[in-house]
Amino acid sequence: TCHYVTSELDQGPIIEQDVIRIDHSDAPEDLVRYGKDIEKAVLARGLRYHLEDRVLVHGNKTVVFR
User: Fold this and answer.
1) How much is the mean pLDDT over the chain?
2) Residue 17 CB partners (closer than 8 Å, separation 6+)
3) Where would you find the membrane-spanning parts of this chain (predicted)?
Protein backbone atom coordinates (compact mmCIF):
# COMPACT_ATOMS: atom_id res chain seq x y z
CA THR A 1 0.00 0.00 0.00
CA CYS A 2 1.19 3.50 -0.90
CA HIS A 3 -0.49 6.20 1.16
CA TYR A 4 -0.08 9.77 2.31
CA VAL A 5 1.62 10.30 5.66
CA THR A 6 -0.43 11.54 8.60
CA SER A 7 0.24 11.86 12.31
CA GLU A 8 -1.22 8.37 12.81
CA LEU A 9 1.02 5.50 11.71
CA ASP A 10 -0.14 3.84 8.47
CA GLN A 11 -3.51 5.63 8.54
CA GLY A 12 -3.10 8.14 5.69
CA PRO A 13 -5.32 8.23 2.61
CA ILE A 14 -4.44 5.36 0.27
CA ILE A 15 -3.07 6.25 -3.16
CA GLU A 16 -2.40 2.76 -4.53
CA GLN A 17 -2.31 -0.84 -3.37
CA ASP A 18 -2.00 -4.29 -4.85
CA VAL A 19 -2.08 -7.97 -3.92
CA ILE A 20 -0.24 -11.02 -5.13
CA ARG A 21 -1.43 -14.61 -5.05
CA ILE A 22 0.88 -17.10 -3.42
CA ASP A 23 1.01 -20.88 -3.41
CA HIS A 24 1.52 -23.26 -0.51
CA SER A 25 4.72 -24.42 -2.18
CA ASP A 26 6.30 -20.93 -2.09
CA ALA A 27 9.34 -20.79 0.18
CA PRO A 28 9.79 -17.98 2.71
CA GLU A 29 12.52 -16.51 0.50
CA ASP A 30 10.03 -16.39 -2.39
CA LEU A 31 7.53 -14.49 -0.25
CA VAL A 32 10.16 -11.93 0.73
CA ARG A 33 11.07 -11.43 -2.93
CA TYR A 34 7.40 -11.13 -3.96
CA GLY A 35 6.85 -8.56 -1.22
CA LYS A 36 9.82 -6.45 -2.25
CA ASP A 37 8.82 -6.57 -5.93
CA ILE A 38 5.20 -5.57 -5.32
CA GLU A 39 6.25 -2.89 -2.83
CA LYS A 40 8.48 -1.24 -5.44
CA ALA A 41 5.78 -1.37 -8.12
CA VAL A 42 3.06 0.06 -5.85
CA LEU A 43 5.28 2.86 -4.57
CA ALA A 44 6.32 3.81 -8.12
CA ARG A 45 2.69 3.92 -9.30
CA GLY A 46 1.57 5.89 -6.26
CA LEU A 47 4.32 8.46 -6.68
CA ARG A 48 3.57 8.79 -10.39
CA TYR A 49 -0.13 9.36 -9.71
CA HIS A 50 0.70 12.02 -7.12
CA LEU A 51 3.28 13.80 -9.31
CA GLU A 52 0.86 13.80 -12.24
CA ASP A 53 -1.81 15.46 -10.02
CA ARG A 54 -4.13 12.49 -10.50
CA VAL A 55 -4.98 12.10 -6.81
CA LEU A 56 -7.83 14.01 -5.16
CA VAL A 57 -7.82 13.79 -1.35
CA HIS A 58 -11.10 14.32 0.49
CA GLY A 59 -10.83 13.78 4.23
CA ASN A 60 -9.17 10.41 4.68
CA LYS A 61 -10.28 9.13 1.25
CA THR A 62 -8.72 9.48 -2.18
CA VAL A 63 -9.93 9.43 -5.74
CA VAL A 64 -7.24 8.46 -8.25
CA PHE A 65 -7.97 9.46 -11.83
CA ARG A 66 -6.88 7.30 -14.75
Assistant:
1) 96
2) 1, 2, 42
3) none
Cα separation, 13 vs 6, whole angstroms: 8
Range of the domain at 6: 2-64
Helix (H/G/I), strand (E/B), else coil: 58: strand
Distance CA 63, CA 3 (A): 12
Distance of CA 19 to CAs 4, 35, 37, 52, Å? 19, 9, 11, 23
15, 46 contact by CB (below 8 A): yes
User: Any catalytic annotation for residue 53?
Assistant: no
**Total domains present in the chain:** 1
Identify the segments of the chain with pLDDT beneath 50.
Answer: none
Catalytic option among 10, 18, 23, 37 = 10
